[in-house]
Specification:
It is globular and about 60 Å long. It is 37% helix and 17% strand. Strands 4-10-9-8-7-5-6 form a seven-stranded mixed sheet, with helices on both faces. A four-stranded mixed sheet has the order 1-2-3-13. The two termini are 35 Å apart. It is α/β, with parallel strands linked by helices and 396 residues long.
Length: 396
């Protein structure tokens, strides 16, 4: 029999496990083997697997209407946009199918804003090393990672890449007359699960204000309750962005994203300037309204903050127990991990062999992004498995 994977474009290297079913914080293979899921589809399954309210909403909508396109009004999209603008800095929302598309919308919105305000020379999007903003041509050029750019033609104009933490270079770049916007993840995911210090987020906002440059937060991975606030920048007073990109957790597993803007940034995106065939479709909006209602609730976020403390303590204990292998605890809230002293890819495999699913990220980080509904018992189980795996692990 031929390998059933042979016709899949080989851009991924998945392990052998095939998951058939999910319940809460667990996944089950075809033979019924249970795995504790502490990566959640890379911060996507924010409410776990097969959440009853999400299943009910999707099932009900599937029996009524799937798609009309944005030629017509979608009531669920209007309702969700209203909730988002009620609960955040935003005045306008554009719904997408993914985080990458939200980034594309953000870049276009920023440049259109500058153009409409008679600053046509302002096209540069300033980003930072370690950033990951998606896989489209625009997004990989924004991220600037040579590994992702290789083979896809010359770099696109209009992107400036700075070293993470180089404040002097940032001040110089923002002051240039071609600067349009700064694009940054408040907590980097792929770049090593590292959080930008609070004072830096506030300082960035102040610098942008001083020079007429827009501030774009990529909260595709760190938003939607993952740090214990609805969005990560909310930990810092006075650090609101002009534009924000959301995806992953906002759909709880159903694929969609959103680009949030102030009125000043959104008013120039008029008919013909942007669009999406599937963005804001009835199925996605049915699920999205349920997810938003649950995660935006302050009691829910308070529990995320509490269990995040339990996770932080557990990771600190692992670091203390394995000082020869663990360099530090990194991240924020439930986007966190262990910075190892060697590549943790084999360690990830050892955890999987012990029925714990975790991820890896840049800078040798074993990444955790579990569902936001994890319990203390789940944390204890994951900690025990990681302890066993680290003990057995022989760094390459």
């Amino acid at each position: 029999m031929s390998d059933p994977r042979q016709h899949i474009m080989p851009v991924y290297r998945p392990p052998e496990q095939v998951f058939e079913k999910g319940e809460g914080v667990c996944l089950f293979t075809e033979d019924g083997t249970r795995y504790l899921d502490f990566i959640a589809g890379i911060a996507v399954n924010a409410l776990g697997h097969a959440h009853p309210a999400m299943v009910e909403a999707l099932t009900a909508q599937a029996g009524k209407l799937w798609h009309t396109s944005n030629m017509f009004r979608v009531r669920g999209a209007e309702e969700l946009a209203d909730k988002i603008c009620r609960d955040t800095f935003a005045d306008r929302v554009f719904f997408t199918n993914s985080g990458t598309e939200a980034i594309e919308c953000a870049i276009k919105s920023a440049r259109k804003y500058q153009w409409a305000n008679d600053h046509k020379e302002r096209i540069d999007i300033i980003t930072f090393t370690g950033a990951f903003h998606g896989r489209s041509l625009g997004a990989i050029n924004a991220g600037g990672n040579p590994k992702y750019l290789e083979g896809f033609g010359p770099p696109l104009e209009g992107f400036v890449h700075l070293e993470w933490g180089d404040h002097e270079a940032l001040k110089e770049a923002i002051a240039r007359p071609t600067a349009a916007a700064v694009l940054v993840e408040p907590v980097q995911g792929e770049g090593g699960v590292r959080a930008m210090p609070d004072q830096c987020l506030k300082g960035l906002r102040d610098l942008c204000n001083e020079h007429g440059v827009l501030l774009i937060f990529d909260e595709v991975q760190c938003g939607m309750g993952r740090t214990g606030k609805l969005f990560a920048h909310e930990w810092v007073d006075g650090a609101e962005p002009d534009i924000l990109c959301s995806a992953k957790g906002i759909g709880g597993g159903f694929p969609f994203g959103a680009c949030l803007t102030t009125e000043a940034c959104g008013e120039h995106m008029q008919p013909g300037s942007h669009g999406s065939t599937y963005g804001g479709n009835p199925l996605a909006m049915a699920v999205g309204n349920v997810v938003w209602d649950i995660i935006a609730n302050e009691d829910f976020l308070a529990e995320v903050r509490r269990v995040s403390g339990t996770v932080a303590q557990s990771l600190k204990s692992l670091a203390d127990s394995h000082p020869d292998k663990v360099e530090a605890v990194t991240g924020k809230g439930l986007l966190t991990g262990l910075k190892m002293k060697a590549d943790p890819k084999n360690l990830q495999g050892l955890c999987r062999d012990k029925n714990l699913l975790v991820g890896v990220a840049g800078a040798n980080v074993l990444r955790l992004a579990p569902p936001l509904i994890i319990t203390d018992e789940n944390v204890r189980e994951a900690t025990r498995i990681m302890d066993e795996a680290i003990t057995e692990w022989t760094p390459a």
